[in-house]
Amino acid sequence: MLFARVEAADAHIIAARLGDFYTGALHPLTDLQDLILWAAMGVLAGSLGAAKGRWLVLVFPLGLLAGLVLGRVFGVVSAGPAADAGMILVLGLLLAAAARVPATLLCAIAFGLALMRGAANAGDLGPETDRLLFAAGLACAGYAAITLTMALTLTFRRLDGGPAVAWRGIAIRAVGGWIAAIGLMMMGFALAT
């Protein structure tokens, strides 16, 4: 009797209750790749310093918007789980190695990452969704996530003044190692399926 009463499930309940702006803003929270990639990008930018990282405040949301538009126009949904895992792995390795990435390369990495994730978020736009509100929500979420993660990382590193607190740089490198390990596991899983 239970199986006879089965009804369709609405997996994206955010859209049904909050409206299109908040759907765009909260949609990245429903995807593990977005969470890990955005956090890793923010920590990397914050670990490189404010002068290099502040460009991402503009570049990352614009990349999300460009990816969203390209995803809708050309029907590109996602680069695939292997590309996402590879990006997680690269960001983790850059963090773990404490690589001094130039600002232009950092912006290029951030823009490419945002393009990929913007296109992936475009795949879940419904025909009734207000695209402008969804895009504004997504861009605002990208701006907030990158800015706050960079600010937290900068604040954490700024306290790194002497030998008693030298562990902070090591802690950020350890986080990079964990991110790289997650990327490696996700890459293996993506290639196995």
Q: Count the DSSP helices.
A: 9
Let me know the number of strands. 0
Task: Write down the overall mean pLDDT.
Answer: 85
Q: SS-based structural class?
A: mainly alpha
Q: Which percent range fits the helix content? A: over 70%
Give the CA-based shape: globular
- Evaluate the radius of gyration: 18 Å
Distance linking N and C termini: 35 Å
Give the ordered list of helices and strands.
Answer: HHHHHHHHH
| Percent of sequence in beta strands | under 5%
Task: Please tell me about this protein's structure.
The protein has 193 residues and is mainly α. The protein is built from nine helices and no strands. Helix 2 (20-26) runs parallel beside helix 8, helix 3 (32-48) runs parallel beside helix 6 and helix 3 (32-48) packs across helix 8. The mean pLDDT is 85.
Summed up:
The protein is mainly α and 193 residues long.
Any chance you could write out the topology, listing elements then pairs?
Layout: H1 13-17, H2 20-26, H3 32-48, H4 50-53, H5 56-74, H6 81-96, H7 103-122, H8 131-158, H9 167-192
Helix pairs in contact: 2-8, 3-6, 3-7, 3-8, 3-9, 5-7, 5-8, 6-9
Key terms:
single chain; 193 residues; mainly alpha; 74% helix; 0% strand; globular
